[in-house]
Design a protein that fits this description.
alpha+beta; five-stranded antiparallel sheet; rod-shaped
């Protein structure tokens, strides 16, 4: 009995061990089944394409997302249809071979971007993350990885690159100089037009020579400082004209349009500008100025000749027109009028009595009282002067000033009886100067009354006969500025 029990114990023990082994194996199988189910669930429901392929180019397994990415109804349809990945799916089959070479060298590749065909032969871009599984002998068993559809990003990149190329082409082929600079005076980029404008064959040659824009490029360094100040104050500057040095040391005129460029946070990035070579225009302008100045001098000479024509017939008023011109110009300057307006007033003053050439000399020099008929003849001289001057090409409104210099604010003047706003300001100025000079000077029929009497006359009739602002300017000239006739 004892012997049978001793035999039974080991047998029971082995049975228990086998039962435990079977239980552990069952638990492992259950755990593996659960794990496989979890993996399958992830595999089947992942939004990213997952695949396994043979090294030769056939799919072993693909998930639904991968199949949909390529336009197949199911993973099995894709596996059955695609029998040569490189030739059927790759736009450039060589890309597949390049990927395999990288895998042989590195074992895994991330972010491999390639253009592929869908089932309907439309094209799209993917980013592949893949690794190779090797056997004990180092042979590649299979590939597995993921695909991400990056078509939208690639299309955006391609569009951006095209836009950049188009912009680059536009900049490179622009007729005007386009550039970017730093605040401290260095070029970041410039198109060929800008380099050529300065006499350089390339950007590299230009930047090697111009390392300090302020002192190497600008003829007047203060001009660059002024531009910077304006940019910091206003953010941009337009149509600023200055001179640049060219490579050979010659100078050119340019017009500058420049702006500050800042990032979204307001941090300064660079200055950006477009410059145009205006040297030809500036030379033409200077030539025109010289021509205009010559014509102006010729005109003044002709005007003075006309003035002398009048004065030789009336020796008692010799110098009257010249003095009226001088006072008129000084009044206009005190009033702050424009230079062209002042010049017109000065010229009109010199010839304001030119119409007296039509009046008999004996009337002009008559020492006694003038009759009504004689006075009516004298009162025609503004209109006669206007008729003489209106068609000789003098600047506007010189002829009109001559016509109106005897008009008065209250309408009592001649020849048209104009009032207040109907009279040109220039004519109002010559009128006051004419009255002051006439009162101060000797005439055949009376002695001169002096400056104080003349000033009292215009001051007393200020706003009635004579323009108030003009009278005030004239009073300032004599009483505060010490004006005297030469």
């Amino acid at each position: 009995m004892k012997t049978n029990l001793s035999r039974l114990v080991p047998a029971v023990k082995r049975e228990l061990e086998l039962a435990e082994t079977r239980r552990e194996r069952k638990s492992a199988e259950i755990a593996l089944s659960v794990s496989e189910a979890k993996y399958r669930n992830i595999f089947d429901n992942a939004t990213e394409g997952i695949f396994q392929t043979t090294p030769q180019g056939r799919y072993i397994s693909v998930n639904p997302a991968f199949a949909r990415m390529f336009g197949f109804a199911s993973p099995q349809e894709m596996i059955d249809t695609v029998t040569d990945i490189g030739r059927q799916l790759y736009v450039n089959p060589e890309d597949r071979e390049r990927l395999k070479r990288l895998l042989m060298e590195k074992g895994s590749v991330e972010g491999f971007e390639v253009e592929l065909y869908r089932n309907d032969k439309s094209r799209f871009w993917v980013s592949i993350n893949v690794h190779a599984v090797f056997g004990p002998e180092g042979d590649m068993l299979y590939l597995e990885g993921t695909n991400e559809d990056i078509t939208k990003r690639k299309e955006a990149e391609i569009a951006l690159k095209k836009s950049e190329l188009d912009l680059r082409s536009l900049i490179d082929n622009a007729l005007n100089g386009i550039y970017r600079t730093t605040k401290d005076g260095k070029f970041l980029l410039a198109n060929q037009a800008f380099c050529s404008m300065l006499g350089y064959t390339s950007f590299e040659e230009m930047t090697a020579a111009i390392t300090d824009i302020t002192h190497h490029l600008y003829v007047d360094p203060d001009a660059r400082q002024f531009i910077i100040q304006q940019l910091e104050k206003e953010g941009s500057i337009k149509k600023y004209e200055t001179q640049f040095y060219r490579k050979d040391g010659s100078k050119i005129w340019v017009t500058i349009n420049m702006r500050e460029v800042r990032d979204p946070d307001g941090n300064f990035l660079y200055y950006e500008g477009i410059d145009e070579d205006i040297t030809t225009r500036k030379i033409a302008e200077e030539s025109l100025k010289e021509t205009v100045e010559k014509l102006r001098k010729a005109l003044i000479g002709s005007v003075r000749a006309m003035s002398l024509t009048v004065e030789t017939r009336d020796p008692y008023t010799a110098g009257h027109q010249r003095r009226v011109s001088s006072l008129s110009r000084s009044i206009a300057q005190i009033m702050g009028l424009a230079k062209d307006t002042i010049d017109n007033i000065r010229i009109a003053g010199i010839i304001h009595d030119i119409g007296k050439v039509s009046i008999p000399a004996e009337i002009l020099v008559k020492p006694g009282k003038i009759s009504e008929l004689e006075m009516s003849l004298i009162m025609t001289h503004p209109k006669v002067g206007y008729d003489i001057l209106k068609d000789v090409g003098l600047p506007y409104p010189i002829a009109e000033i001559v016509l109106q210099h005897h008009e008065r604010l209250d309408g009592s003047g001649y020849p048209q009886g104009l009032k207040s706003e109907q009279i040109l300001l220039e004519a109002k100025i010559v009128a006051v100067a004419d009255v002051v000079e006439a009162i101060m000077s000797h005439r055949p029929y009376r002695p001169g009354y002096g400056v104080d009497y003349a000033l009292e006359e215009i001051e007393g009739k200020k706003g009635i006969l004579y323009d108030s602002d003009v009278v005030e300017a004239c009073l300032v000239l004599f009483r505060e500025k010490g004006f005297r006739f030469a």
